[in-house]
Specification:
The complex is a heterotrimer. Chain A is mainly α. In chain A, 70% of the residues lie in helices and 0% in strands. Chain A has two helices and no strands. Chain A is rod-shaped, with a radius of gyration of 26 Å. Chain B has one domain. Chain C is 72% helix and 0% strand. In chain C, α1 runs antiparallel to α7 and α3 packs antiparallel against α7. The chains are: A mainly alpha, B mainly alpha, C mainly alpha. Chains in contact: A-C, B-C. At the A-C interface, α1 and α2 of A face α1, α2, α3 and α7 of C.
């Protein structure tokens, strides 16, 4: 089926390059977004950890709030 | 209208007293002609090359004006003073554009004769009225865009860098129009006429961007 | 991270876009003079249209921001322009590749559409540095909106001005009415796919930014941080 529309045209490499570039760009973008989402997830679990520690600790109002390393 | 006259007078008087922009622009413009002479290795130019050199020179020399346009207001509280006055803020934009237009005229009064003297093969006399018209439209376009972009750039940290970077793409239609219009005027052996299409495009661009700038200028001054 | 309908949108995007490329490869007939090379058309032109529309939409959203002064509109405008810029890179690269296959050169100055796109791209390339150079978030948003409105108006003007007297050598398969039905259909499906892609990325980016804003607010509350250290950022802060 591919042979019907794909003759031995010299341009096919360029066509492939164009589509592949588009795909690569999209993948890079998604990878960057993935890293960002992963970072947010990590921050979120840090905060969860923090709330759990606070709940377990005695409710001491004079105690300094713990600080996370940033 | 009185507000505009007062603001314009203030701009021009400030420039006359401090001479911060215009002398630098003129010197820069003439120096660019020399640079073009050596860069192109040509004793004289005409036609499209001459048009290009003239437009680019005015553009680059004008960039110095753009960068200085709002600096005094930003650094010495001119914005605050203006905001306290009960006047329409649009006038500041019109006055700044008008002042820059005047600076460009001053630049051209020196730079264009210098260009004719140093590089231009055909004399300026062959199409002087048309030349003045095109330069006026070029100046207006530049002044409008620079007055808007300058107001944005002056509040940023890298103002001298961002001003030209933002302004140049916006100016490209002006450059195309002015260069196409100047080309027949600077042709050797008799000037051609003005192309009505390009004249209309250039005029329309000036008009549209003028109105657009007036519409969006206000938010730049609020603080 | 569950924007409403984001999952459905993503699935629709993948289906339509892959479908579009599939029918571009197998169904659309070969162009009479361009042959297989014409297939770049189904990638390049929809990308360019979507990217330009995105810039204009960014301007319209900025108008809304200046009217309402709600920072969510600034965020929307920023994201629209951001995605358009990313797609713009693909437009320029695929355009150059198409120029190479069609005319044998990587760049053709006689080609008004390509040149106008470059000018618009260069203008918007300064959008992010401009935002970054303004520290106060409120002023940053305001100035960015002015930029976005001026830029959005510049897009059609620039295309008109550059096109005005350049000769037309762009492969006029499009808009002249002579495009055969199957090609036209393929083109429309590709355009729909690209528009969906833009919408998905836009929603995704917005959701991420909003979630991050909420996360930071939560962190501040938990740590009793009244004055958070604002990191300088080009992105709007919500």
């Amino acid at each position: 089926m591919f042979a019907d529309t794909l003759p031995g045209d010299q341009g096919s490499a360029y066509v492939a390059a164009a589509y592949l570039f588009f795909l690569a760009l999209l993948l890079v973008y998604l990878a960057i977004m993935g890293v960002r989402v992963a970072r947010m997830r990590r921050e979120l679990s840090e905060l969860e950890q923090l709330t759990r520690e606070r709940r377990d600790a005695p409710p001491a109002s004079e105690q300094e709030p713990e600080r996370l390393p940033t | 209208m009185r507000v505009l006259a007062a603001l314009l007078r203030k701009e021009l008087r400030l420039e006359l007293r401090t001479l911060e922009s215009v002398p630098g622009m003129i010197l820069f413009g003439v120096t660019i002609f020399v640079v073009f002479h050596f860069g192109l290795d040509r004793a004289s130019v005409e036609g499209d090359l001459a048009a290009g050199i003239l437009v680019v020179t005015i553009l680059f020399a004008g960039m110095l004006g753009l960068n200085r346009l709002y600096v005094a207001d930003e650094e010495q509280g001119g914005f605050d003073g203006f905001l306290l006055a009960p006047v329409d803020r649009t006038w500041l934009f019109v006055a700044k554009a008008g002042a820059l237009f005047a600076y460009l005229v001053a630049l051209e009064l020196v730079a264009v004769p210098a260009f004719a003297l140093l590089l231009l093969e055909p004399g300026l006399g062959q199409a002087l009225p048309e030349l003045l018209l095109v330069l006026a439209l070029l100046n207006a376009g530049f002044a409008i865009i620079a007055a808007l972009v300058g107001a944005i750039a002056v509040r940023t940290r890298a103002r001298d860098l961002l001003g030209p970077l933002i302004a140049l793409p916006l100016l490209i239609p002006v450059v195309i129009g002015a260069a196409r219009l100047l080309e027949p005027l600077l042709r050797e052996g008799g000037a051609g006429g003005l192309d009505a299409t390009w004249l209309a495009i250039l005029g329309l661009y000036d008009l549209v961007f003028g109105l657009l700038s007036i519409a969006v200028f206000d938010p730049l001054l609020e603080d | 991270m569950h924007g409403k309908g984001l999952r459905g949108l993503s699935v629709a995007t993948i289906v339509v876009l892959v479908g579009a490329f599939a029918i571009a490869a197998f169904y659309a007939p070969l162009d009479a003079d361009q042959g297989f090379r014409q297939k770049i058309f189904y990638l390049h032109v929809p990308l360019a249209i979507v990217s330009l529309v995105g810039f204009i939409v960014g301007g319209l959203l900025a108008v809304q921001h200046l009217r309402s002064r709600a920072s969510i509109w600034d965020l929307r405008s920023y994201v629209a322009i951001h995605i358009s810029l990313i797609l713009g890179v693909a437009v320029l690269v695929t355009g150059a590749i198409w120029a190479k296959t069609s005319w044998g050169v990587w760049w053709l100055w006689d080609e008004p559409t390509l040149v106008s796109f470059l000018i618009v791209f260069l203008l918007y390339a300064t959008y992010t540095p401009m935002r970054f150079a303004i520290e106060d978030p409120e002023r940053q948003a305001r100035y960015a909106s002015v930029f976005a409105i001026a830029g959005g108006a510049f897009v059609p003007i620039c295309f008109g001005a550059v096109r005005a007297q350049e000769q037309e050598v762009h492969p006029q398969t499009f808009g002249s009415g002579e495009l055969p039905g199957p090609m036209w259909l393929t083109f429309l499906v590709s355009l729909a796919g690209m528009a969906l892609l833009f919408a998905t990325l836009y929603r995704f980016e917005i959701e991420t930014k909003l979630t991050r804003g909420r996360l930071r607010a939560l962190r501040r509350r938990l740590l009793d941080d009244d004055a958070p250290v604002q990191r300088r950022s080009a992105a709007p802060t919500i």
